[in-house]
Amino acid sequence: MVSVNADAEAAGLEVGQALADAQAILPDVALAPEDPAGDALALERLALWALRFTPLVGVIGRNGLMLDITGVEHLFKGEAALREEVLARLARMGLTAITAVAGMAGTALALVHAGWEGEVPSGQERSTVAPLSLAALNLEPAMISALQGLGLRSVGIVDAQPRPALARRFGTGLVHALDEALGLTARPIIPIRLPPEMAVMRDFVDPVVTREGIEAALADLLAALCRALREAGRGARRILLRAYRVDGNVQELTIGTGLATRDPQHLARLFKGKLEGLEPDCGFDRLTLEASMTNPLTGMQENLGTAGRAERREELAQLLDRLSQRLPVWRLAVRASHWPERAMARMNAFETAELSHCWVPRPRPVRLLRRPPFLQVMAQVPDGPPFRIRLGRIWHRVRRAEDAERIEPEWWRDGPNRLARDYYPVELDSGARLWVCRSGPMGPEARWVLHGHLP
Amino acid sequence: MSAPQTQAPLDRPALISALRARIARLERAGAAEALSARGEEAIPLSPVIDAALPWGGLPRAALHEVLAAEPGAAAGFAALVLARAGGTVLWIAPEPDAWPPGLARFGLSPAQLVLVRAPHTQDALWAMEETLRCPAVGAALLVTGELDLTAARRLQLAAEAGGVLGLLLRPDEDNAAPTAALTRWRIGAAPSATNSPHELGDPAWTLDLLRCRSGRPKSWQAAWHGDQLVTDERSTRDAPARRRA
């Protein structure tokens, strides 16, 4: 047994009991198999849901959530009211929780571990934690029993001992846990989502269900976010829409842009295709829009010379944004390699390609086939150019063929088994110009492929 | 009793020319606006070909169809048109295999080329339409198969709205259905002018203008020499070998 609910506990069941004992005590006990992965997932969903209270939420262990409510409690009319609202909303979802509010994350955690509920006034952390049992420190069971064996039964008594002696006897872990619980050292919160650089939100009295409603709300939020971005002199690179469903489910949609932007219409268009992914079901009662990544974007002065160009650049970036929401879009950058497949590298479409070196003025194909087909080829001499080539079912006579261009494998990139290739530009009787390649040993075992089409 | 003839007898030639003028105004009405905003001329190919085209070159803000009788030659011709259109150029294909080391010969630099992979026709058409509507783009190329009239018409209207030159690169089929494109070309390979069996020489193409709105079909042999298209004067024919438009 890994967990029991309140009713079962009242009947005498406890964690760690054998299943047979439990069934003997309470024959009609409802059993659910343990599912750590499912529990972790549910906890993460709950953490996302908790983002409605504060932007900084962390998951603690297997069953805890830590909310940093610094600066948000006044939105809920105080810490006590906030705690009550959290509990009420959890209860509506059928969940019970132990909650505590304290000035330091470690203190709050210690209080919850010890089962203490409420708000600690600032400055009284030490006195509140002192009478608690050692469970507050969340230590190994062996260490707790060792401490109890020495007569150290509460946090306060352990605190009264000299620290060096404690560290020597029980390790620095205990001292660290103690300091965190007493609020002497800060305990970092690892957020499940990085706090956004900028966020706007909207609550709805009547949950929005329809596509039109969501679009209208999104337009509203985008306008507000873009206003905030303009005031900050920044543009968004990534925007996250988080929709809180009435039943506690949270859904997220993300869009990215190539250049920083704060044009609400452009952003709305990027979201348009993605909104289909939302499942409103019984409706959303809150939408938040976060700019999770922003770049500086200063207002541009419309000068005579640069106005048109900047506008063009922005328009092009918006087009590439729209295309890349749905399809892969890239540019090609020149790479210093003679191996044809490596001569060009894919790069981000929003960067500008540098022309670092010129190409040798040799005939090069305009289309390089990604899956080059094998060819049947006749050559007059084993190391000579092709004489006849079979394309499909027909043998074509080669009218012209240039001398081979040998391309050696790059030993610093390739394995030792890669063979050198001989490339022949050939012109068939039909006028077609092909870039054919022979790899492998010359003679009957030579393998011929069609690697590209010459213009 | 029959009603008296109240209408004046029709002046048929005048009526037809008036209707023609009206159609001409309706067609490419948006293009005129987009082009006047951009203020750019038609794209020159070669003096001989330009003289045969009613616009003095390949007009922007329009859709042009290229049937590839030979993949390499057609890609070369397309690269030439894209490069001369200038600006950023998009290459939309199910599997874009454009290779800048070869395209650079026609003046198309990798700095202006953006590749879009669209495996499904629907996505490809959407991407092409979005691109053609964007005035910041110089030209766009779509590698596609059969295209229905409605889709082509949509693309043509999008090109008119954005002032962008659109190229449709299609495989050469004997009975390619008519589309809304302004011109249709068939590009094939021609034997090059060199006599040596050990040298390929300049790329040589047969350019068949199969269909041309308010123009006549024609056929040329041309070679790419240095950085220009040199038309072989003797080979100019009035009608392409096979008419199919």
Would you summarize the structure shown here?
Chain B: It comes from Neoroseomonas marina. The complex is a heterodimer of chains A (about 450) and B (about 240). Chain A folds into three domains: about 150 residues, no CATH class; about 120 residues, Dna Ligase, domain 1; about 90 residues, no CATH class.
- Strand proportion of chain A: 25-35%
The biggest sheet of chain B amounts to: 9 strands, mixed
How are strands sequenced across the largest beta sheet of chain A?
12-13-14-16-17-18
What's the tally of helices of chain B? 7
Helix content of chain B: 25-40%
CATH fold-type name of chain B: Rossmann fold
Protein name (chain B): Protein ImuA
InterPro entries (chain B): ImuA, P-loop_NTPase
Architecture blueprint of SSEs:
The complex is a heterodimer of chains A (455) and B (245).
Chain A: H1 6-11, H2 19-25, H3 36-50, E1 57-60, E2 64-67, H4 79-92, E3 100-101, H5 105-113, E4 118-119, H6 125-129, H7 141-149, H8 155-160, H9 163-170, H10 172-181, E5 198-208, H11 211-232, E6 234-245, E7 250-261, H12 264-272, E8 284-296, H13 307-326, E9 329-334, E10 344-348, E11 367-368, E12 374-379, E13 386-391, E14 394-401, E15 405-407, E16 421-428, E17 433-439, E18 447-453
Parallel strand pairs in A: 3-4
Antiparallel strand pairs in A: 1-2, 5-8, 6-7, 6-8, 9-10, 11-18, 12-13, 12-18, 13-14, 14-16, 15-16, 16-17, 17-18
Chain B: H1 12-26, H2 29-38, H3 47-52, E1 62-68, H4 71-85, E2 88-93, H5 100-103, E3 113-117, H6 121-132, E4 137-143, H7 149-162, E5 165-171, E6 183-189, E7 204-212, E8 218-225, E9 228-237
Parallel strand pairs in B: 1-5, 1-6, 2-3, 2-4, 4-5
Antiparallel strand pairs in B: 6-7, 7-8, 8-9
Helix pairs in contact in B: 2-7, 6-7
